[in-house]
Amino acid sequence: DIVMTQSPDSLTVSLGERAAINCKSSQSVLYSSDNKNYLAWYQRKPGQPPKLLIYWASTRESGVPDRFSGSGSGTDFTLTISSLQAEDAAVYYCQQYYNTRHTFGQGTKLEIK
Amino acid sequence: QVQLLESGGHLVRPGGSLRLSCAASGFTFSDYFMAWVRQAPGKGLEWLSYIGDTGTPTYYGDSVRGRFTVSRDNAKNSLYLQMDSLRAEDTAIYYCARTPGNGWLDYWGQGTLVTVSS
C-alpha cells in the first residue's frame, strides 16, 4: 500500500495568517499517462463528515473558498490556507487514489489562535 | 440534493457479523462508484472499500479484505457492507461516500456507529 505521511501532526496559526500542511506519499502518485497527481484533500470538523476540498492535487471542489489551495507533484504535496478564518479550525487529511487501495494520511489538526 | 444515509450500526460481539446499508438519493446512483470509509475512536480516516457503478470491480483495504464484502443494488439506490468475523478494532463510525470514479470522495453520509465488544 502507498503510505501517506502528513506533517505536522498539529499546528496553531493566528487568525488571518497562512497555514501550510504537508503530505508525502511513499511512492509517486503522478500518473504518467495523464500527467495527473491522484491526490485529494479533505477537511473534517467535529460531528460532521469529511468535506472534499481539493482533488487532482490542485483542483478546488466547487464551493470551496479560494483561500484553500493545493500544490505539489509526485510524492510531495501541500495544502495551503491563506488568511485563516475561525471556521477553518479542523483536522485535514490527504488521500491518494493512485492505485486500487486508496489510503489517507494520519491527519493534521489545525487550531486557530 | 445529494444525500447518503447509513444505517445498521450496532453493538455486536467479537466474531459476529453485521450488514451496513447506505441509502442514496438526489443523484443517479447507478452512474457512480461508491466507497466505505471508517474512523475509529481517536484515530484518523481509514479507506475500506470501493465498488464500481455496476457492482464491479470491488477493492478492499488490507485490514478488511476477506472479512468485509461490499455490494450494491442499483434498483434500490443502495450500497451495502457485509462485515463478518468482527474484531474489537473494527469499532468505528462507518461512512459511505460517493466517488466520481477516479477515487476522490465528493459526498459523504453522516455515518453509523459500529461497536464490537463482549
Written account of the structure:
The complex is a heterodimer of chains A (113) and B (118). Chain A is mostly beta strands and 113 residues long. Chain A is built from no helices and 13 strands. Chain A is 0% helix and 51% strand. In chain A, the strands form 3 sheets. In chain A, strands 2, 6, 7, 8, 11, 12 and 13 form a 7-stranded mixed sheet that branches. In chain A, strands 1-3-10-9 form a 4-stranded antiparallel sheet, with no helix packed on it. In chain A, β11 (90-96) and β12 (103-104) form a beta hairpin. Chain A starts with a strand and ends with a strand. Chain B is mostly beta strands and 118 residues long. Chain B has no helices and 11 strands. Chain B is globular, with a radius of gyration of 13 Å. The N and C termini of chain B lie far apart (40 Å). The mean pLDDT of chain B is 96. At the A-B interface, β6, β7, β11 and β12 of A face β5 and β9 of B.
Strand content of chain B: over 45%
Oligomeric state, counting identical vs distinct chains? heterodimer
Major sheet of chain B: 7 strands, mixed
- Tell me the total number of β-strands of chain A: 13
Largest interface: A-B, 24 and 24 residues
The number of helical segments of chain A is 0
Largest sheet of chain A: 7 strands, mixed
Beta-strand residue fraction of chain A: over 45%
For the termini of chain A, the CA-CA separation is 37 Å
Helicity of chain B, in percent?
under 10%
The total strand number of chain B stands at: 11
Instruction: State the distance separating the first and last CA atoms of chain B.
Output: 40 Å
Helical amount of chain A: under 10%
Morphology call of chain B: globular
Low-confidence stretches of chain A: none
Radius of gyration of chain B: 13 Å
Task: Give the overall form of chain A.
Answer: globular
